[in-house]
Amino acid sequence: MKKNIKAFTLAEVLVAIVIGVISVAAAFSAYNYYTKSYESVSQKANVNSAARDALILITKDLRNAGFIGTTFLTASCENITNMRDAKIELASVSSKRSGPYGQADNLMLWYTTSPQDRKQVSYTLQRKQNSSEYYLARDVKINPEGQRRGGCQGYNSAFNHPVNNELLVSHVEDFQVIFKDKDGKILAPACSMSCGPEETKLGNNNIVATSYGNMTRGQANQENIHSADIYLTVRSPKEVYNSNRSFRIVNGEAGYGSNISVSADKYYRETFFASVHTRNLSIPQVPTTNTAGSIGEGQGYNK
Amino acid sequence: MVNKNQKGITVIEALVCMVIIGIGFVAMMQLSAYSIGAMDRSIEKNKMNFLSEMVLEDMIGDPYNASSYANVSMGCTYSSSQATSLPTRKIDKWKKVFSEDDFIKFNSGSGFKNKKPECASGDLKKTSVVSSSGRTQAKINMSTGQGKRKKFLGVILK
């Protein structure tokens, strides 16, 4: 055999292959690890930005809730008496709750947007088709009361229902809204028409005298809402953790909020919170013309 | 017989070369680990920004009691207090929310734990209210990174 051939020996080639494989494996596992952690962080970031955007929108609507412009035309298709009754509604009664764990609230509110038009906005949890997932939906109707009574000119459902349960945040597990009065005490129930079982429990105490006449407790409470606490619990669309973990979601005060136990899985969950001062529900006492600088300068709020 | 005159690189040279490349590789990995960590931390900081908006919103809702909201410090832990008025109820809520007490708990096998927000000793969230010549201003000061990074959010209440 000729000994002078220039080449690697078998042993050299094997050592080279082993070293090569080890370094490729190291690079691959490191790449894998970083892709995974990048994936989990971006899931968190997506959940955060979606939920925050939704809370900003809800906050904006709650600040407007109950606003009836001074220029609003009484002769428009919306009836001013009905408007006074319907400012905000929170379906927080057990029979009206929704969501994957049946504890989420439904929020509905009204405000005028022009001398003729009044907007109805509702936030509910809706189930996706062929799925067990729920999403936070926003629904907007223009002049709903006038339409219901057939009093609006030029009725056009496409125009008057511009946003039909549009997806705001996906994979929502809980949505809670808790109203508080000017002393920070919880106000429940709050509804425009009838709250149902929650009011029935009150019996004779259900009818309250207000400056607009006798009202049900739920309707009267609408006038006293000074602030709202909003809780939104969202789950990541994909699995994030390596091992199973179970969750307990506690949103809001006991008896009014939710208390949910989630069985063990690998998803990331986060509760987002916002607090809103509802500017147009509990109206500051109108100051006398002699002392008033502006309409917002009342010293107290209606009880 | 090994020909000593072959032109090539020795194993030692090759290994030294690999070690040098490996160091560069590790540095790259640390860079990406750091950037992922930075993303995670920015999510947490973003949360603090939104929570400080909550504090200001509550003060805007009660401008005539502004002085009751002055100099409130929110730390990393929460212990409930007996709240009887609007300011004390709000302050109790801030402390609770900033420490994320009770919101969401997880159990990865050793009992339920609170999800703690990023909060190091030396971190500070403190309100301040200044009234002068008929104008009341409210501010929330935040310092994170053990007091190294400072910022504030402020609003004119009335």
List the keywords:
heterodimer; A: 303 residues; five-stranded antiparallel beta sheet; elongated; B: 158 residues; alpha+beta; four-stranded antiparallel beta sheet; two-stranded antiparallel sheet; 2 helices; 22% strand
Description of the molecule:
The complex is a heterodimer of chains A (303) and B (158). Mean pLDDT of chain A is 82; it is low at 287-299. In chain A, strand 3 (118-127) and strand 4 (134-142) form a beta hairpin. Chain A is an alpha+beta fold and 303 residues long. Chain A contains 6 helices and 12 strands. Chain A has one domain (40-277). The radius of gyration of chain A is 28 Å and the shape is elongated. Chain A has helices at 10-64, 80-85, 144-148, 157-160, 197-200, 217-222; strands spanning 88-91, 106-112, 118-127, 134-142, 163-169, 172-180, 207-210, 213-216, 227-239, 245-251, 258-265, 267-277. By secondary structure, chain B is α+β, with helices and mostly antiparallel strands. Chain B has one domain. Chain B is 40% helix and 22% strand. Chain B has 2 helices and 6 strands. Chain B has helices spanning 11-60, 86-98, and strands at residues 73-74, 104-107, 113-114, 124-132, 135-144, 149-156. In chain B, the strands form 2 sheets. In chain B, strands 1-4-5-6 form a 4-stranded antiparallel beta sheet. In chain B, strands 2-3 form a two-stranded antiparallel sheet. In chain B, a hairpin with a 5-residue loop joins strand 2 and strand 3 (113-114). In chain B, helix 1 (11-60) runs antiparallel to helix 2 (86-98). Chain B is elongated. Chains A and B meet through helix 1, strand 9, strand 10 and strand 12 of A and helix 1, helix 2 and strand 2 of B. Strand 10 (245-251) of chain A pairs antiparallel with strand 2 of chain B.
